Write the structure tokens for this entry.
Amino acid sequence: MSTETLHPVALAHTPFAEKFAIPRQPSLAPAATAIIELLPPYDHPDAVAGLEQVSHIWLLFQFHQVAPGDPQAPRLKVRPPRLGGNASVGVFASRSTHRPNGIGQSVVKLDKVEGSRLYVSGVDLLDGTPIIDIKPYVPYADCIPAAVNGIAPAAPVTVNIHWTPAAEQSAREQGERLQTDIHTLIEQCLAQDPKPAYQQPDPERRYGVQLYDLNVVWHYPDARNICVLSVTPDVS
């Protein structure tokens, strides 16, 4: 069997500096904006001519920070977070990052096209993700109202987000500095409950993630509530 070499056509510049707290599906956090920067030789307006007429696009990408699997012992089953991290399904019945060829796909909202840059929102991609193809979303073909998925029949139940006054004030100030709505982004990402579903959180335990150049720290007063404790610039 012949093998093909895939070359990125673009890079994604996103808020997510690490995998933890990235939305598990696209569009769950509309405030997660990104820039898709086309790479040579595709960094020319001709490559995206007409795309401004499209509201959403498909991004095909590489899970570039997932270690490649062993071709001699391929992973046939995975444990999706949606099933609590314990139940397993076949790799092709999931959207797990651990895939035979490390390829993912996401549909995102196309906000605008400027030269060789696409401004999108609702992303679920790690910063620096290589994009291997871009395609327009076609509503009459891509939207199937009668579609069924018994594994994930409905959107996940979200948790409640609370803030300490200092954290909320800092989020708004840092949002002004970065010219983006950090407050909403944090709420939308954390509402998806990024911790493993099987984990019972200890109220004393602190969780953290880096968004843009900010360190966000929170804890769980109980399993259905998150309290954001601090939002501070990363000084490392």
Summary: The longest helix spans residues 165-178.
